# Entry
Amino acid sequence: MLLQLSAIFSKSIPLLRHHYRLPVGLLIVLFFAAASGRSLLVVASYLAAPVVEDQSFLVVENSATGTAVGTVIATDTETYAIIAGNELGAFAINASSGLLTVADGTQIDFETNPTFFLTVEVSNPDGTDTGIMTINVININDAPVVEDQAFDVFVNSPTGTVVGTIAASDPDGNDLFYTILAGNTGNTFDLALTSGLLTVADNTLLSDPTTFTLLVRVSDGGLSDTAVITIHVIFDPNEPPIINNQSFNVPENSPNGTAVGTVAAFDPNDDPLTFGIMAGNTDGAFAINDLSGQITVANSAALDFETTPAFNLTVRVTDTGNLTDEAIITINLTNVNEFPPDINPQTFTIAENAANGAIVGTILVSDGDGEDSFTFDILSGDPAGVFSINDAGVIAVANNSTLDFETTPSYSLDVQVTDSGALTDTAVMTINILDANDPPIINDNDLNVSPAAIQETETITLTGSFTDQDSGDAHTVVIAWGDGNSDVINLSVGTTSFSANHTYLDDPAGPSDDYTIEVTVDDGTDSSSANASVTVSNVPPTLDSLTAVPPTLNEGEAVTLSGTFTEISPLDTFILTVDWGNGVVESFNYSAGSSSFAETHTYQDNYDPATIAVTLADDDGGSDTGETAVIVNNLPPTADAGPNLIVLDGFPANFSGAASDPGAEDTLTYAWDFGDGSVLTGTLTPSHIYPGIGVYTPTLTVTDDDGDSGSDTAVVTVIAPSDIIGLKTVSGSFNEGGAIRYTIVLSNTGDTDQMDNPGDEFVDELPEEIALTSAQIVSGGGAIASSFNTVTWNGAIPAGGSVILEIEATILPGFRGQVVSNQGQIFYDGDDDGQNEAFTFTDDPTQPGMFDPTTFTVQERSAIYLPIIMNQAVSAPDLVITAVSASSSQIELTIQNQGNAATASGFWVDFYINPSAPPTGPNQLWYDLADEGIAWGVTALLAPGQSLTLVYSTEPGAPNQYFVPEESLYNGSLPAGTLIYAQVDSAREGVAHGGILETHEILGGPYNNIISGTAVAP
# Structure
């Protein structure tokens, strides 16, 4: 049920709200205006049946009786009750609050009842509802269980003997950890942490029967239990004997009966022992005394070091109870020198130019004793010490200065070998020397440079000679001139001299003026090199002419400095340094081969004159200088007094003046004449209160530091405060050709009626950017009329009343990007004399402050395309967008020229954001299809195969090369998934570069200049 008393409230009067609940369940909400009491809003409704939804709760197992579980949430509920699922009586519910609590803590056990499903009924006089309350029991850890246990272990049980495994359990199935807390005297036992396996760790205290009582803890990582583990140490009726691995040495060929050694063994029960060889006794080489364990030689012939250097006998020891043990008894034979070494004559070859250390060959030696060590000596045949030999029998070159085929073609060396037993053998080793090529020889003093010092671009002559013992060789001479160039001279057989000329185009880089010339002579097998040097001096450039155009200019204008120069080196690059005479010094780089320059500079202040000093330096430090001068005239500053103002009498007029000067370095001063006899200096944005109602003409005068000045005026209309208020808003399509609507609300906030007096009560002259379509009265009385682009209204406005007018218009073409401003004027009777002698202005309520004009920005215009007129040549560029990516902060795309000719002019690129339809052909600009987009005007020329990447970034200071803000509209928001397109080779009206003719257009191929995609997350 809704009761409402309505009235028009001022937005400045706060509303208060009060609630009242009646006994019958009727809820009444009262709204009234606290300040005036003239309006009352009553809202009433009846209560409904209760509502409860299924809900979930958690409770820890083993919770005590009375533990709160949670409160059941329901609407319009008076009583709560559990009607099912609580058969064990585990829970209770408060009938009035719905609080669930534990009623029997013994039932809250995760292992038996992990989840309870309670059906809860809620009710009030209007009805009932039920819901399922799911209560999940949170598992908590239960302690493990271990009982007292007992084990037996034999006396003298060895380390590692298993005693037993302790039995334990955990209700939760957790992993268990075992620890000995006490009773482990001498650390006799070890208990495995995770398995509970009990083993012997140290049998020192197990020599006699005894009992160990261990206190053992079993833990699940949180909770634990303890038990007493009793270990009885008892006798074993018999223990086996013990024998360990052993080793002995005996010389080879030892006679039968030679004692080798006695095997050591013992029995824990002191039983008598017997010994036997079970394996490894090849050819019956040894025997063992079965009672003493002594090993002797049984077969001397089997003891041969060269065939069997060691025997591994498996020996078994047995006690009286037939318990046994076995061990490996190793018998090592010691070698006895029996045979002399043996070498035979061998033949080797080595080249005559072999280097010292070169390997000639290795002498082969054998010895009947098997492995032995040897020493080698050259007894004769090498009086000059040409060769050396080491103990491995390796012959090497020791002195190659006398290793010459022509002198000694062969050597016969008498070599002796000696073994470790001083036994020897000798043999003759023949070494044949191989004839080899002799390299040519050239030295630094074999070269001559003439002249030895020149200037860059001059020529030298290099002559040289060399020697070669091989008279039949032909030679190649390679000359590296040191400047990156080289020459090759092929000489015939018998020619050992040469001559060549070379021109140096530049002096060397770096501090030295010397080039190093390297000459290499090669006979096809070997080569040698020599060096010479030449000094090449730099010749500085010569400045031929210097001109500044125009010679006289105004501040804020640019001068072009041009000049010509001469440089004899075609390789020198240049740095042009210009001191413009106003404290600005700039440097410019010019490439090799340049002979002229042209640079521009803008003067930001007047100079009479500005002397321009120029230094032209080459990359070798040579330079020339020159001077010229220009006269820079001062220009007066420009003043802007700001927009016309409308202010209420007694309120300040806040000015927003501006000033500019062609000379950016000029210092400006400001003076205001407010038009009422008051003046103020030093600020562009003063605030001034005028003495009374009227129209005033303030003047702003701006003066620069050269004494020149400029001024501007504004109009300030001071009006009396009024009860007549006019609000004006605009809506519609703000595109060129779009329809818009102004809505004007004229209100009388006073207590006196505003009569229909002679003349118009409202006049609105529409701006030139729009054309009037129609005007009408939406509410209220009076008469509305229009003439050309002006709308008028005549009529009365009663006290507290209002009139609503609408003006419809169309945006004219040609104003894209412009701000359209409009403000109507209201005339009224301010002194009740029947005449409209007072006036005021409409205000845009969406803007702060009073008397704001109503404005909007024209967003689009119709596109006009330039005709494409180019030479119909088959060779043409073909621009293709190969990649595109976009986010809110950055848009990037790559263009490649896939044609067979470079672009002859610039071109345009359009980026569409969520277009109404995809672009399908050339010259579809982004604002033909989308509300937002970006345009680049590319002036770079692209060669075939060349790519260009365009980037638009919202980051402050981003360069955004080729981006054209006047042809773009982007609000900086690009959500992920936004549909995007890009097109290259579109055209714009009135620009120097438009569309270009491409290969597919000439040959009738498919249009391939468009790419699409979706934006990614910012």
Remarks:
- The radius of gyration is 57 Å.
- The helical segments are 926-929, 999-1003.
- The first strand starts at residue 2 and ends at 4.
- The longest helix spans residues 999-1003.
